[in-house]
Backbone:
């Protein structure tokens, strides 16, 4: 794998915070971050332009008690800052293996990240840099799933690669609680919205539907899955119009 023509020129990878957590209860596991960075490098080395949106659940989970009873907007801003705490170790791990990378934050944190500027992000991608989008959309009440859909549309990504943990794709029900749940090889955006399938939240899915943006939902536990999808193989679930 790695020599054949890549199926995409530009893609957006959505990583949950949990994808960087490894076996820890919360926080980032350095070995896991390195392994995710290696998977990104393999695809990047094939000439694919890669943008990444990171979640913050692994860090926010540790702050849940502090956020109890707090105003929703304040809690959401804390979550956005948590995604910055994930973007930085991922940036570091990528730089360690000689991948040129930039972090752009939707919240202004000038000392550690560039501000999110769409045209600059696209220029970085054109120059072969990986771009990590942190701090979600910069607005409360929107998830990092919505940030992934929004950034993917803005930068003209050809697909979103939605990395899941411990599940192979999209199921008819929650496989952890329903033994009768079956995995779907393909589903339409509209069907996923109407059936309430756990792809991404409804706002994000609607944005993908309106912009005809396919979503590949796959298991991040196997680091080779990103490479397989980029090679044009069918892995996990494909959500498309």
Residues:
């Amino acid at each position: 794998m790695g020599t054949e023509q890549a199926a995409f020129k530009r893609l957006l990878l959505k990583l949950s915070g949990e994808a960087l957590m490894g076996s820890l209860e919360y926080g980032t596991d350095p070995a896991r971050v390195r392994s995710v960075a290696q998977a990104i490098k393999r695809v990047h080395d094939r000439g694919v332009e890669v943008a990444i949106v990171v979640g913050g659940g692994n860090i926010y989970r540790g702050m849940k008690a502090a956020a109890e009873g707090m105003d929703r907007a304040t809690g959401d801003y804390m979550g956005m800052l948590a995604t910055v705490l994930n973007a930085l170790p991922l940036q570091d791990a990528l730089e360690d293996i000689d991948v040129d990378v930039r972090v752009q934050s939707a919240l202004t944190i000038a000392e550690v990240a560039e501000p999110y500027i769409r045209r600059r992000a696209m220029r970085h991608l054109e120059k072969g840099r990986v771009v990590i989008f942190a701090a979600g959309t910069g607005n409360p009440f929107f998830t990092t799933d919505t940030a992934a859909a929004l950034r993917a549309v803005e930068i003209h990504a050809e697909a979103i690669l939605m990395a899941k943990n411990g599940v192979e794709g999209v199921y008819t029900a929650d496989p952890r609680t329903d033994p009768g749940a079956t995995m779907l090889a393909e589903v339409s955006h509209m069907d996923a919205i109407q059936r309430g399938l756990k792809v991404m939240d409804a706002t994000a899915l609607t944005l993908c539907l309106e912009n005809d943006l396919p979503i590949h939902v796959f298991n991040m536990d196997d680091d080779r899955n990103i490479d397989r999808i980029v090679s044009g193989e069918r892995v996990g679930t494909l959500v498309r119009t």
About this structure: The longest helix spans residues 72-96. Helices lie at 30-44, 57-67, 72-96, 118-126, 144-154, 189-195, 202-210, 225-230. The chain has a mean pLDDT of 93.
